[in-house]
Specification:
It comes from Paraoerskovia sediminicola. The protein is α+β, with helices and mostly antiparallel strands. It is built from nine helices and twelve strands.
Length: 326
């Protein structure tokens, strides 16, 4: 007797469910993702997840065809922040929920962290609506030490510069830098330059699903205005850095955990964020001080720490594979 394969015990007439599909959002100049994220495609495939890179502003992409969307190599979001947030709000099943992206892509979020008692870099905020004169800007800059000027929406030190408060030429350049940003309708941040950046560097702590995953230190130096020519969306966005694996102190981990809690308080929709990166420096008093906190940062140094890629891929898989989510 011939047995119909469709009715065989192996299949019992049922079709195996397709693997969940996940889009790893990237930018047009990195359509195949960057080196930090590209290995995720292979690792996710091994976990039973079909992951593909997709350019976030490509109008031909059908985002509703994916079970989940993860913001990854989107290095060009800052110059188009409003467009980027609107895109996130239109995408179903985006794991970096849009309200969190709206809150986190504008550095006013530092005010919320500071109000919650988290040590952050002291910041003077300049509002373009005030139409500040050169003299008014001058009087708002520090009288001593080095200081930094940057816009509230930026990535990777773009349009950021370091200046000397007691050097007339440097101070003049700082005023010109601030005026240019304000003339473009951009809020400006004025911060003291933290000396520990030149010695210990920045400690960058990465959390996956709310748990500490790994950390690195980054050594880089700001020297003056950092204005790109605008020809390429990512040109000049990121300065050359020296990256080393790092074991953070309990105090640094505690500051980063508290930042995640504040995010959850300010954006209840976020639940447990898929990932977060906290950049810290040592303050003048030796206290770990938050420089930035991000839930959309493209570079999580996944290739720099053993097991980080697998942990991150596992967190994504747990959110889309039946029976694996909390």
């Amino acid at each position: 007797m011939t047995t119909n394969s469709a009715d065989s015990p192996e299949t019992d007439g049922r079709t195996e469910p397709a693997n969940p599909r996940v889009a790893l959002a990237t930018c047009s100049v990195m359509p195949r993702l960057d080196h930090d994220n590209a290995p995720l495609l292979r690792i996710l495939a091994g976990l039973g997840v079909d992951a593909v890179p997709a350019v976030w502003d490509d109008e031909s992409v059908d985002w509703s065809s994916f079970d989940a969307v993860v913001v990854r190599s989107v290095y060009d979001y800052a110059p188009r922040r409003d467009e980027f947030v609107a895109w996130a709000e239109s995408v179903p099943n985006i794991l970096n929920v849009a309200p969190a992206l709206r809150w986190n892509t504008h550095k006013f979020y530092l005010k919320d962290l500071e109000a919650a008692g988290i040590p952050v870099i002291p910041t003077l905020w300049l509002d373009p609506a005030r139409n500040l004169s050169s003299r008014a800007i001058h009087t708002r800059m520090p009288a001593h030490g080095r200081f930094v000027i940057k816009p509230v929406v930026s990535a990777g030190a773009k349009d950021t510069g370091r200046y000397e408060s007691v050097d007339a030429e440097s101070r003049g350049l700082a005023i010109m830098h601030a005026k240019k940003l304000l003339a473009e309708g951009r809020h400006v941040m004025v911060q003291p330059y933290m000396k520990s950046v030149d010695t210990a560097g920045e400690a960058r702590l990465v959390f996956v699903d709310g748990e500490f995953s790994h950390a690195v230190t980054s050594s880089t130096h700001l020297t003056g205005p950092h204005i790109t020519d605008g020809h390429r969306p990512t040109q000049g966005l990121y300065r050359t850095e020296t990256i080393r694996s790092y074991e953070p102190t309990d105090e640094q981990v505690s500051v980063a955990r508290r930042a995640i809690e504040v995010l959850q308080e300010c954006v209840p929709e976020v639940g447990t964020p898929l990932y977060a990166r906290a950049d810290l420096v040592w303050g003048e008093d030796g206290v770990p001080t938050l420089l930035e906190f991000e839930v959309n940062e493209p570079n999580l140094f996944l290739s720099s720490s053993k097991g980080a890629l697998e942990r991150f891929a596992g967190a994504i898989a747990a959110r889309v594979l039946p029976g694996t989510a909390d």
